[in-house]
Known about the structure:
This protein has about 130 residues and is an alpha/beta fold.
Amino acid sequence: xxxxxxxxxxxxxxxxxxxxxxxxxxxxxxxxxxxxxxxxxxxxxxxxxxxxxxxxxxxxxxxxxxxxxxxxxxxxxxxxxxxxxxxxxxxxxxxxxxxxxxxxxxxxxxxxxxxxxxxxxxxxxxxxxxxxxx
Length: 134
């Protein structure tokens, strides 16, 4: 029995020395638990090439995940157009045939949202599509 108690004391002293040498890293950052990085994970960048002509977009549907950063590379394939989505306050400049512009935004709301061309009656004439944020 004495040998067991001596063995247990040696093991406990060993653990104590180990923690003194290595230090408790979780208590140094004040969390008292698992360390957390102060940097957040960057959102995924999803890039879509969209062209517009009278009165349609090349993509009728765009799907992304909530939190994704979205880049729309818009090209006018014929006529004077733009690309807009109200819920994310994102809109390209208007461009003539062959013009290219881009817009970036973060899809921070889940749901289905309509994007459209804001020139004249283009939206009412069917120049629209859906952004689905899952």
